[in-house]
Design a protein that fits this description.
Elements (H helix, E strand, L loop, with lengths): L2 E5 L7 H10 L5 E6 L4 E4 L3 H11 L4 E2 L2 E2 L1 E4 L9 E7 L5 H9 L4 E6 L7 E7 L2 H11 L3 E2 L2 E2 L1 E4 L3 H5 L39 E6 L3 H5 L4 H10 L2 E4 L9 E7 L2 H22 L7 E6 H8 L4 H10 L2 E4 L11 E7 L2 H32 L30 H4 L7 E8 L3 H5 L4 H10 L2 E4 L9 E8 L1 H17 L11 E8 L3 H5 L4 H10 L2 E3 L11 E8 L1 H31 L4 H11 L3 H11 L1
Antiparallel strand pairs: 1-3, 1-6, 2-3, 4-5, 7-9, 7-12, 8-9, 10-11, 13-15, 13-16, 14-15, 16-18, 17-18, 19-21, 19-22, 20-21, 22-24, 23-24
Helix pairs in contact: 3-14, 7-8, 8-11, 9-11, 10-11, 11-18, 14-15, 17-18
Length: 606
């Protein structure tokens, strides 16, 4: 994307005029300016120079009485689904941008572009050409928090080649990352191989120590890389003028820890030599998705790390999260050895959280037809490359996936009553955006009583829509501080099942419900003495954090689907073999004890 289109030119503009504009701003270009009537073309050495030219000139420079417009030159056959949005306020929250983009169609990919500007730039891929065209028409010039958005096409090479999207074209790849996407990401051509959780150790170091870490002509950092067998990226060019710079260390857990110690040693020595600081704390960056489990219930996990390592640990607040920064800063204070020991414990928790999420998401990929892991935007950019592919052969989800188009599902999620206003938003804006983003119907039921402490949110939609809607609901409650900074969001969810199938959820002697709870880490309860409703359905309660609840919901739906399949098969056999009916009924009664008996078994187990 290094070829530029320069528009809105006066008729008497010459190539020399344009050369002077570029040279005055010290923007590199290659070859000659090809000037036509009212527009021109020019090549830049690379994508970064092209972006610098767009940011420097488009709408900002006047030439012969007209403000020139500069954007990527995109041949007509490549003007399909990919657009670039520039001049985005840097503090913009993700969900606001999500809601804005979702108004014009389904977003398949949204990737942040690293630039030198103070505002954000993202490349967006819509599902269809018409959606991209509508987004350009509506968003170009759109006033957003005193910023006028600039939107244009960017080349869609895959469309030009007639190619199809690869599995790595998930949403938010690299979205909000402080560092550039890693080499060897999905689609890079390297064969897939199973490896340890691909979570880099991300450090935040004072800018004045970066030179010492790199060393003369890079000698120091090469030595660290060689001794620890790691790949280290120092993101010097990002966040120009910032007091701290991120460093990414890619290696085994042992290699990351060894590199961390060497970097910490260098910083302490540099601080001592230059007398710039009495204390140099260790700062670790961790994606917000994992921080809740690092902290633990009532802060127990974090307190244990502090006690075991004799360090003081603090974590940056949720309010610091922005479009640019999906990471929280974990600050560790103490002696070097203690800080290094704390790093090992912290990253162990982070990797465990990541691996659990990958396992959960991998199961979701089997259970939900067409679920795009990256599209849900729940993993940090550096980790999506490590999501393993579905295993070959028959998966546990085959019965679910074999029914074609997924059915509409209705789920009741209970939230604190005082959170209703935040979920609805001003004039209903937030709940509308959430509904559009997820592709689900979302309604808040009236309170059961004037002093009700909980309110029911009714979500209707297919499985993937349920996943997105419920995920954003959990996230919003955390962001708005309805749960403490060291408290994980756990909600109660109800799904309705046929009364005749409730016994299958419980299982013989409570075996199935026990397995569900062990597998998902959610509490699953079929309340006693339920009276089926007018549709002969009863409630199953699920209580847990987001991933636990989602896994439990999907497994229960899977069980119900199998029941339906068996019932259809049973009715077919009954029609063909009516003489075997008494024996079949007896077999069914033996395999499925009455609901009351199942509930009694469940209660005795408790």
């Amino acid at each position: 994307m290094n070829k530029l289109y320069i528009g809105n030119l006066s008729e008497n503009v010459t190539p020399e005029d344009l050369e002077k504009v570029f040279q005055d701003s010290k923007i590199s270009f290659t070859g000659q300016f090809l000037v036509k009537t009212g527009y021109a073309f020019v090549d830049c050495p690379d994508d970064q120079w092209a972006m610098k030219a767009i940011e420097a000139f488009s709408g900002n420079v006047e030439l012969h009485g007209k403000r020139i417009e500069v954007e990527h030159s995109v041949p007509k056959k490549q003007r399909t689904r990919k657009i670039q949005i520039r001049n985005i306020p840097p503090h913009l929250q993700w969900e606001v941008l999500d809601g804005l983009l979702a108004q014009y169609g389904t977003v398949e990919n949204c990737e942040q572009v690293n630039t030198d500007s103070e505002t954000a730039v993202v490349n967006v891929t819509y599902e269809t050409r018409d959606q991209a065209r509508q987004a350009i028409q509506k968003l170009n010039g759109y006033q957003f928090e005193n910023n006028s958005l600039q939107v244009s096409y960017i080349p869609d090479d895959q469309s030009a080649q007639g190619g199809q999207q690869g599995p790595d074209n998930g949403r938010r790849a690299g979205y909000g990352s402080r560092g550039p996407p890693r080499q060897g990401s999905p689609g890079a051509g390297a064969p897939h191989k199973h490896q340890h959780a691909d979570i880099p150790l991300r450090l935040l170091v004072p800018t004045q120590y970066v030179g010492a870490i790199i060393g003369k002509e890079g000698a120091t950092i090469r030595n660290i890389t060689k001794q620890t067998q790691s790949k280290i990226d120092v993101h010097r060019k990002e966040n120009a003028g910032a007091a701290e710079k991120p460093i990414s260390v890619h290696s085994t857990p042992e290699g990351c820890s060894a590199a961390c110690k060497m970097i910490l040693d260098i910083m302490h020595q540099e601080a001592k030599d230059t007398k710039t600081a009495e204390e140099v704390p260790l700062k670790i960056l961790a994606h917000n998705n994992f921080v809740g489990r690092l902290i633990g219930k009532e802060g127990r996990n974090l307190k244990k790390v502090e006690q075991d390592t004799d360090t003081k640990i603090t974590i940056s607040p949720l309010q610091d999260l922005t479009l640019y920064n999906p990471e929280r800063t974990i600050t560790v204070k103490g002696p070097i050895e203690a800080c290094c020991q704390a790093e090992e414990e912290i990253m162990k928790k982070v990797r465990e959280a990541y691996e659990n999420d990958v396992a959960a998401m991998n199961l979701q990929a089997h259970l939900i037809p067409g679920l795009n892991l990256n599209a849900l935007g729940l993993f940090p950019p550096s980790s999506t490359s490590a999501i393993p592919p579905p295993p070959p052969g028959n998966s546990a989800a085959a019965p679910y996936g074999s029914f074609g188009t997924p059915e509409q599902e209705t789920v009741h999620v209970f939230i604190p009553a005082q959170a209703v206003g935040a979920i609805i938003g001003k004039k209903g804006q937030h709940i509308k955006q959430l509904s559009r983003f997820a592709g689900a119907s979302i309604k808040i039921a009236p309170p059961e009583a004037p002093d009700s402490k909980m309110r029911m949110v009714i979500i209707s939609g297919p499985p993937e829509a349920q996943f997105k809607a419920q995920g954003r609901l959990y996230g919003k409650l955390k962001e708005e501080n309805f749960f403490g900074p060291k408290e994980e969001v756990k909600l109660e969810t109800h799904i309705k099942v046929a009364a005749s199938a409730a016994g299958r959820v419980i299982g013989k002697g409570g075996k199935t419900v026990n397995e569900l709870q062990n597998l998902t880490a959610a509490e699953v309860v079929v309340p006693r003495e339920q009276t089926p409703d007018e549709n002969e359905q009863v409630i199953v309660k699920i209580i847990g954090h987001f991933y636990a609840s989602q896994l439990a919901q999907r497994k229960i739906r899977d069980i119900l689907t199998l029941v339906k399949q068996q019932q259809r098969g049973g009715s077919h056999r009954q029609h063909q073999h009516s003489q075997q009916q008494p024996e079949d009924e007896e077999a069914v009664s033996q395999s499925q004890p009455p609901l009351q008996e199942q509930e009694q078994q469940q209660e005795r187990r408790k």
